[in-house]
Design a protein that fits this description.
two-stranded antiparallel sheet, alpha/beta, 30 helices, 608 residues, 9% strand, six-stranded mixed beta sheet, single chain
Length: 608
C-alpha cells in the first residue's frame, strides 16, 4: 500500500475473519446490548441477528441471498493486525456470534468445524519464523477488562458479567445470541452449522483500509457525516482525535473515558448532555436539535476551540459532565446536597432536567448564591408546571436565563434573580392564582399534589418552630409515611355525606385542593371515612401544625406573642365542613402559596 492509497474490499465474514483485528484503547466501549435501569433498550444485537436470519430464511437449495451489514474502517499496523477505527460494534457482535455458535455445538457434544475454530483464533508466523497464537479480535480499551478472551476461550458461562459497563454489555450481547440459538435455531446441531455457513459465506461487509490512523479517522467522519450511522457524541470524539497530536491520544482517551463514565453514572443520554452543555456554555438558540449538533461544531470552532486545543476542550466538557452527574444526584458541582435540587426532583420527577442548563451556567457562583439559584429554580419550575406552561416555552426561558447568568457575578446575582426568576413568576401571578383556586386531585400528577401539600405544610411548621433537620427536609413531608387525606371522605359513609350536606357525594368537590390535607398514615387509618365531627377530634394528634389546627387554632398556642402562637393565629380554621368551607380553605391555601413560592404581583409583594 502506498502512503496515500486507500483500499476498499467487499468481503464475506469468512474472508474478514481470516485476518486479525484490534479495537484500540482510544475507542469507546462496547454499547450494543446495553439496557437502562428499567431493563429497556439493548435491541441492537437482537436486530442484528433477526435481520440476518430473515435473509437466511429466504435461501433455497440452489440460492442464498447475500446480506450486507455495513462498513468498517481499518489501518494495518507493522504486525499485520488491523486497527478498527470504525465498526467495532458490529465486528465485536459478529465475533461473539461465532463464539456462541461454537459454544452451543460444544455443549451439544458436537465436533467443532475447523473453519469455525480458525475464525475465532489462529496463529501467524513472524519474520523470524516464530509462530504466534492470537485471537482474531482483541479489545484494548481499559473498560473491556480482558473479557473477550474468556468468550474466545469458550468460558462464556463463567465470564465476568458485572465489573464494568462494557463487560455488562458484552455479557448481555452473548446471552442474547445464545437465546437466539436456543429459540430460533432450537439448539439443533444441523441448524447451527447451516446458520454458521450462511453467516460466514453470505453476510458481507465493506472493509476500507487506510495507510494512517489520521486518514482512517477522516474517512470515519465522511462515512458518518451529519450523524448518519453514528450520533454527534461519537463524531465529536472522532473530531477531537483527528485534531489531536498522536502523543495526546492517551491523555485524550483517558479524558473521554472519564467523560462517558460521568454521563453513564448520571443515567443520561449523551446527546442530551451535549445539547444542554452547548445551551449553557454558548449563545445557542434553544431550538438547537440533537441531530444538528455535529454540524454546529463544524461551524463554530472559533467558539469552542475543539480543533485548535482538543485536549482543553475535552477537559472543559469533562468538568461539565462531572457537575451534571452531581446535579443528577441532587448535588452541586462540589458534591454537596442542595435542597432546592431535591425539591425540584420531588416536584418534577426524574424526566424534567431542563433546569440543568442554568445550573451548568451558574457553576461559577459562590456556594450561597448557587444554593439560592437552586431555590429560585424550584419556585419558578413549580409556577411553570402548575400553570401548564409548555415544556418548549419554559426551556426557552431557561436558556435565556442561562445565557445571562454566564456573565453574572456574585455582586450582580440579586439583580439577575429579580430580572429573571422573580419577573417570570410575577408575569404568571394571575394564572397561578386562578389555577390554585380551581385545582383538583387529577388535574396534575399526584406526586405534584403531594409536593404542593408538603410545601404548604412545611412552610407553616417552619414559621412556627423554626429550622431543624427534619423540618428543613421536604422529603420528610412527602415520604411514604404520610397520606393525602380527603377531609370530606372519598367514598364516605352515609353519616359523613349527610353531615356535609349538599355536594357530599360530588367528586368535583371531594377532589378539590381545599378538601385535601397532609396527615400521617397511622392517624389516617384511625380516621377512615368517618364524618368531620369525629375527624377533628383526631387531627390534633398530627405533628403538622396545618393539620392539627384544621378545626381550631387553640391546640397550637403556647404563649401570647411567640412564633408558634403567631403562626397558629394566621391559619384559617374550620369548625364545620361544607361546600363553603372547602371553597374558603382552597382560597386560603392559594393565598398561602403565593408566599411559599414567592409569586409577587407586579408592583407589590405577596401577602401571607
Amino acid at each position: 500500500m502506498t502512503e496515500q492509497s486507500i483500499i476498499s474490499d467487499d468481503m464475506t465474514l469468512k474472508r474478514m475473519f481470516q485476518d486479525f483485528y484490534r479495537v484500540p484503547d482510544y475507542q469507546r466501549e462496547y454499547v450494543w446490548g446495553e439496557t437502562d435501569p428499567k431493563g429497556e433498550g439493548g435491541e441492537e444485537v437482537d436486530q442484528f441477528l433477526s435481520d440476518i436470519y430473515a435473509e437466511y430464511e429466504g435461501a433455497t437449495k440452489d440460492f442464498a441471498p447475500e446480506y450486507f451489514i455495513g462498513t468498517i474502517v481499518v489501518c494495518k499496523d507493522d504486525k499485520d493486525v488491523f486497527e478498527l477505527v470504525d465498526g467495532q460494534q458490529r465486528t465485536t457482535t459478529a465475533y461473539l456470534t461465532l463464539c456462541a455458535l461454537r459454544d452451543a455445538l460444544t455443549e451439544l457434544g458436537q465436533d467443532i468445524p475447523e473453519e469455525l475454530k480458525s475464525q475465532i483464533a489462529s496463529s501467524t508466523i513472524d519474520w523470524q519464523g516464530e509462530s504466534v497464537a492470537r485471537f482474531r479480535l482483541e479489545l484494548q480499551y481499559e473498560d473491556s477488562g480482558g473479557i473477550l478472551v474468556q468468550y474466545a476461550e469458550g468460558d462464556g458461562k463463567n465470564a465476568d458479567r458485572e465489573r464494568t459497563r462494557s463487560i455488562r454489555n458484552i455479557g448481555s450481547a452473548y446471552r442474547t445470541i445464545r437465546e437466539f440459538i436456543a429459540t430460533t435455531l432450537e439448539n439443533d446441531p444441523a441448524a447451527i452449522r447451516k446458520f454458521h455457513g450462511y453467516l460466514t459465506n453470505k453476510v458481507k461487509i465493506i472493509r476500507i483500509q487506510t495507510p494512517t490512523i489520521a486518514k482512517a479517522l477522516k474517512i470515519f467522519e465522511t462515512i458518518n457525516d451529519r450523524g448518519v450511522g453514528l450520533d454527534a457524541m461519537d463524531l465529536l470524539k472522532n473530531l477531537l482525535f483527528m485534531n489531536a497530536k498522536e502523543s495526546e491520544y492517551a491523555k485524550l482517551k483517558d479524558i473521554w473515558k472519564a467523560l462517558t463514565d460521568e454521563i453513564y453514572k448520571a443515567r443520561e443520554k449523551p446527546l442530551r448532555f451535549l445539547r444542554y452543555y452547548l445551551l449553557a456554555s454558548f449563545d445557542v438558540d434553544s431550538k438547537l436539535r440533537e441531530e444538528i449538533i455535529y454540524d454546529w461544531f463544524l461551524r463554530n470552532e472559533a467558539l469552542t476551540g475543539h480543533k485548535s486545543a482538543p485536549l482543553k476542550f475535552a477537559q472543559r466538557l469533562l468538568e461539565a459532565a462531572k457537575a451534571y452527574s452531581n446535579f443528577a444526584s441532587n448535588r452541586n458541582a462540589a458534591g454537596r446536597v442542595e435542597r432546592g435540587m431535591v425539591n425540584t426532583r420531588l416536584l418534577g420527577g426524574k424526566s424534567i432536567k431542563q433546569h440543568f442548563i442554568v445550573l451548568m451556567s451558574g457553576r461559577h457562583l459562590s456556594s450561597a448564591n448557587f444554593s439560592r439559584l437552586c431555590d429560585e429554580i424550584e419556585k419558578t419550575m413549580f409556577v411553570w408546571l402548575i400553570t401548564g406552561t409548555p415544556g418548549k416555552e419554559y426551556e426557552r426561558r431557561i436558556v435565556d436565563a442561562a445565557h445571562t447568568l454566564r456573565g453574572t457575578t456574585d455582586q450582580d446575582f440579586e439583580e439577575f434573580v429579580r430580572s429573571n426568576f422573580r419577573k417570570e413568576r410575577s408575569n404568571l401571578v394571575s394564572d397561578f392564582n386562578a389555577r390554585l383556586l380551581s385545582l383538583k386531585l387529577g388535574d396534575t400528577r399526584q406526586f405534584r399534589i403531594r409536593y404542593l401539600l408538603a410545601k404548604l405544610t412545611q412552610h407553616v411548621d417552619l414559621l412556627a418552630y423554626g429550622p431543624s433537620q427534619g423540618r428543613d427536609d421536604l422529603q420528610e413531608y412527602v415520604a411514604g409515611g404520610n397520606d393525602i387525606e380527603h377531609i370530606l371522605p372519598d367514598n364516605g359513609d352515609a353519616e359523613a355525606i349527610a353531615e356535609f350536606g349538599e355536594g357530599g357525594d360530588d367528586q368535583a368537590i371531594i377532589q378539590r385542593l381545599g378538601n385535601l390535607l397532609l396527615i400521617e398514615k397511622s392517624i389516617n387509618r384511625a380516621i377512615q371515612n368517618g364524618r368531620y365531627f369525629s375527624k377533628i377530634s383526631v387531627y390534633p394528634q398530627s405533628k403538622y401544625l396545618l393539620t392539627r389546627c384544621q378545626a381550631s387554632n387553640q391546640s397550637g398556642q403556647v404563649g401570647v406573642a411567640d412564633k408558634i402562637t403567631t403562626a397558629t393565629k394566621s391559619l384559617e380554621v374550620f369548625p364545620y365542613w361544607n361546600v363553603e368551607a372547602v371553597q374558603k380553605r382552597q382560597a386560603f391555601l392559594a393565598k398561602l402559596a403565593t408566599t411559599v413560592w414567592d409569586v409577587e404581583p407586579k408592583g407589590g409583594a405577596a401577602s401571607a
